Fold these 2 entries.
Entry 1:
Amino acid sequence: MGVATVTSTTGEAGANTVKGAGPAQLEVRGVTKAFPGCLANDDISFRIEPGEIHALLGENGAGKSTLVKIIYGVLQADEGELIWEGKPVTIASPHDAREMGIGLVFQHFSLFETMTVLENIALAMNDVRDMDALRKQVLEVEKTYGLPLDPDRHVYTLSVGERQRIEIVRCLLQNPKLLILDEPTSVLTPQEVEKLFETLRRLADEGCAILYISHKLHEVKALCQKATVLRGGKVVGGCDPREETAKSMAEMMIGQKLTAPDRGKSREFGDVRLAVSNLSLESDEQFGTDLKGINLEVRGGEIMGVAGVAGNGQNELFRALAGETEQQAAPDSIKIDGKSVAHFGPRRRRRLGATFVPEERNGHGAVPDMSLSENGFLTAFRRMALSARGLIREVPTKSFADNIIKTFDVRTTGSGAEAGSLSGGNLQKFIVGREILQDPGVLVISQPTWGVDAGAASAIHQALLDLAAKGTAVLVISQDLDEIYAICDSVVVMAEGKMSKPRPMADVSIEEIGLLMGGLHDLEGNATPANNTQVEGGRVGQA
Amino acid sequence: MVRLEPRRQHSQAMVYLSPVLAILMTLVVGGIIFAFMGKNPFDALYTFFILPINNSYGISELFVKATPLVIIAVGLAMGFRANVWNIGAEGQLTMGAIFGGGLALYFHDSESILLMPAMFVLGALGGAFWGAIPALLRTKFNANEILTSLMLTYVATLFLSFLVHGPWRNPEGFNFPESRPFPDAGLLPIIFEGSRVHLGTAVAVFVVIAGWLLLSKSVIGFQLRVVGKAPQAARHVGFRQKRMVWFTLLLGGALAGLAGLFEVSGPIGQLQPSISPGYGFTAIIVAFLGRLHPVGILFGGLIMALTYLGGELAQITLGLPNAVTGLFQGILLFFLLASDVLTKYRIRFGSIAAKGRTA
């Protein structure tokens, strides 16, 4: 059985290892991996000691994922070797990796949506015979590490944040000696992040080596003792994050100087352009979050952030604003430039000058196996007059896409390339650019820089700031508080389908936002007694 | 060991090669089957695939058979692109024949040149009406259109049978279950002297061009591709799926109805209990063989038409049962679907020892 409780097994691991002495937990020597037309890893070498928290830094496409896949046995290196506890090893499959004690929390979750949490965990274990015993262990780990999850919920009903918790729990169940985490904090509140860090530090103290992949550099600085920086498939340097600044590490990653987003002069806000009043809507999804009495007003020139832990109604809010919901909101509950649009579909809302960028790029914001030209046409054909008499106007359609590609520096082979062939950051730049170039009066954007590299993220942030400076009302739904602090003028927090009152960014501390994310509305005085009886993701920090 | 390995990108080459591969495999397996039936496989394949078209009359017959297949398949492909699975084209074809043919019977002594255009319209309306029923059931009650459209096929064919056995039976027809012959004004003009190639063949070419324009150049074609490829993106921009269900079922039904009308006012010239050797079903294969692309469908239609001609000839000269036609069509569809796996996966021979172990 590969199953053992975490506390006892990591204890064992801790007993026979002393930090810095003896062989490395894992040493990567000269690993090279080529794909057709791309050298993903080029002679990469570094080592991780037992009990060390080691950051792997690099932009998207720097080769981090490939390297992780090689360590986890998903891919085989063309050249080079892996040394595990002093001995060269072949890690032929994830099965082998798990048996050796390597755990991985993927960035893209490898979960079966139609199965339950417990079944998914069982599938990832090398050998499970007793589901009841496993359930007990799962509940124990959840309790120990503060990762609440109902083992019998089906995965498709869970939010992104909750899904990640499954991945973490199932790794912790497996007696890891090396735990790899790929962008683990994107979906957590600051308090949850701190709690995760405590967990990771404890694991490290017990001797578990941790390979931590993140683009959030202040987190790396707070957590990691060493960092290896990749760029273009090569190791370009190593550092001690504690002695670096976030800016210096970011510059090492992208290989050039970084400029902070230019917020311009303090802006005057214009009239209210997007108004939501007392919007309540049942979720279309079975286990979705119903919206309860949402109120907000975004003025021209203002960027308002919607903070919150994943699954607290942000997706429902986005769909309600974009007009995607089956059910209609109450009349007058949503207004664009003073005009009630609650009964309008997406096309009529867009005609009034609202544009939208959903969280999911592939299949929601863009059609992966259509060309960029066609994807430009997708949302812009009316506003940009790309069609005439029911036919697609080929020339303006192509030049619109070319314009997006040029203006937003989208790296691609051209407007004929399929959207699915672009990297996440480039596709996001294309989608954001597509909406911005339509010169919207209102832009609602969800997770603008999710899974996007630092260079693309700063370009997107700058574009949003520039757009607001021209008088557009921008609503940014984001789980990334850094992002909200970087670009927003004001912030509201969603928890359990309710929304806090808007607060100017300057007046609100990260702790307060964290508490609001946990569902504590009492702070503002409009008491909604938090219902603490049910186990629910995102409730932390109430104590 | 042979393994299937996912490709990083869909292979464009395989999209076009897989029909060719499927046809080759069908020939090989077909040859083997002929051998088991005690025929020389080369002779049999020659009889089946070459002999029917080694003279100009044979080629003209190929066009006659391909006409309904192509017209129907273009309509079906629109639906398949939007994930609307209308497999009841045979029934829509039958209703088109009943509506349009009924008009010809009602005006059986007419000489008006308006009769033919009116029959076109009614034929299309009849098919569209039969397509509207699954559309209504799907959009109102979420009933699966695969089942409803298929079941309605049997209703339509039995309805036709009822009409020609009863109310529409030819009073001068010695009690045969057939309608009156259509008046000359209700018969499609022949466009090549000495053959049976009728106006419908020209319409089929027009349908291919119009279908191509609709699919790749029009906003509505764009909408149905988006609805099919990324339903969530379609919802995001307000392309309504229900509207696409209506559009594709009405269009597919109308085209099938038109094809049915062409059969009864062209090669057949009257209503009979059976007016189609399964064109509505074969058109499904044609649509996929043509990669759901109107121009591809033109070629797919010709190939499938050949299996009909070959089957007839094999019956006459080799004494093979008519089921051979259906067998060939089935084998072709089977291999087509199997070869399509290769657009997403590649075959790897041999194995890296390390990869042999799986979790």
Entry 2:
Amino acid sequence: MVYEIMMPQLSDSMEEGKLISWKVNIGDHVSVGDVMADVESDKAIMEVQSFKDGIVKELKLKEGDIAPVGTTIAVIDTSQKEERTPAKTERIDQPKAPQTQPTSIKQPSVIQPSSTISIAQIEGFASPKAKAVAAKYGLDIAKLQQKGQLPIPANEEAIEKAYRRRYFTPKALQWIARYHLSIDAFEKGKKHGEKEVLAYIEEHDIPLPKPLDPMHKAMITVVTESAQKPVYHIYDAIDVTVLKEYESEQRTVTVWLIKLIGEVMMHHESFRTTLKESGLQVWPNASISVAMADGEALYMPVFKDVNKKSIKEISKILKDFKEKVKSQRVLPDDLEGATFGISNLGMMGVVRFDALIYKDASGIAAIGSETEGKISITLTLDHRIINGYQAAEFMERLKVLAVDALFYKKGIEDV
Amino acid sequence: MLYREALNRAIDETMAIDSNIVVLGEDIGRYGGSYRVTEGLFAKYGEKRLMDTPIAEMSIVGNAIGMAIGGLRPIAELMTVNFALLAFDQIINHMAKLHYMSAGKITLPMVVRFPQGVSKQLASQHSESYEQMLASVPGLIVLAVSDVNYAYHALKKAILMDDPVIVIEHELLYNKKGNVDFDRDIDPLKARIVKEGDDITIVSYLKMVDDVMEAVPQIEEKLGKQCEVIDLCALNPIDYQTLALSLKKTGRLVVVEEDHKKGGFGSQVISWAVEELFYTLDASPLRIAGEDVPIPYNRKLELASIPTPDKIVARIVTWGEQNGL
């Protein structure tokens, strides 16, 4: 490396300097702080020092030359300093000895930076905790470090890992991780395989821990809130003999029921009402959430403005939602805005059941299976929003509309 | 609310309920305090309860001790800890000891408050920290205020306490913003967990808590580990229980303080951890402190002499890597 010494700015007003005399020759060894030259500024003659160790390679000015501030006046080769140091020190030390003495008195005592202590990393180095754990497992830290199986210094995590690697097969470790087992449960100083771990799980009847996924957590929040609502139930049934005449692959019982309930809701505003702290909100259209499950995943996607939709449209939305549920691509927006809900377990043969109200809806209808031309309907209703009288009126209208052939005819024609 | 406003409110509220509470110090009355902590109180409570004193720190604390013996509850404000040195005889020989030496006959329900620490280019005679001296004096309760909520609750409790309390503030924190939870009381002697984490316990106090919090996101990103940040709050007594719980969880201890490293307060925390929890330590404890130089005036050198967020990140990351984190 090459280090250039510039004409220094020795005062605020100095623009150029005159080299009075060189204090070194080409080939000389210089150390940090050695005086290189005397330079005259506009005010005084001052010393120019070297800030690096090295060999003087070039002196660019002759004594008496004038150079502007910032131009290179000398070049020092810093890479050669070590090679020639031994020879140099002898020569320099003698004249220097008396000189360095007085300057060192002027220097303030050297301040040690607060953290420079570095200790050689020796095998056997480990944290106190790591040593305690290694002792428990009977591991020889120094030996493992020699083999490169432990870092220096070793910490607890590294010891645990080393122990696991040494005494458990990878398959065994997988089972241990899956069942959240402690490795302390297995005899120390002995190799353990998959079989032993599985036998341990069987013998101690250990349950498989299953962390809750975000969807499951959300479901728990929703049903817990729902269970705190002041609800009551209405148990009834509707005649579906007419409905059955109009049932087809597309126009399923569920599709008809969504439309039926949506129509009836338009006549009963309490079923289009939600409750917030600020009071009740009555919504202009009938939006219904319908329970759909795919294995553990349960969603309540919302059929918005059912009153404005045709049977064909509802059938299409139902199909879309089924696909979304299957591929788990239901959007947050799909789950908002219902004031009433439907849960149909009837199609799976359940005769009668009741359901939990979804989010801030006013109620939900649980649809059972068909027996003797009737299907059971159980309403779960939030009494803060709908009272028994209003619910009875709703049920009454639903029963009447359910056997109204005109309703179904219109539904088929309406494309 | 600002830090100084929280302190003001604590004084105001206690003065309103107890007429024995008085404030004395330089410029605390008509001027409202050098850091505006007593702003507005003179107009409210008058010159008998807000006493402007001469520039004589020993007499300020001496008078406060006399008032406390006589039944008042004085709050003495000293402009900075650097000047409080003149009052150390009163603080250490009298304020800390009279209750003990009188076999409990004398109680000193008093508070001495002052800021300390490195501000901006106030040079070495106005930038020192002396918590290490005060926290080692038996008989004094020493609180270090880093947080706005703590400022309000801790000062209020300190004023109403029957023991002599030193409340240390920091020059750069007076305009710090924060929220005060007026409904939830706190124990001023309990350390505050500023942020929870599983892997590294970082203990700090006063302004360094903010610097640590600024450094933590980078540390966590670079090391892939979580930091638990603890504000000691009380320096005497120390809430070792909170520290022990954290350390048992993380096994790793870092202490960050602004004061000079040699003999600094943080060494007490490390020494305790090594004595009491040696076998839970999973890395050598790390102390990040100021350099052992008088605080320089030059801004660059001033910053070079104390921990900064950048330095905290660099030191903890290097240390972490050396210890297998």
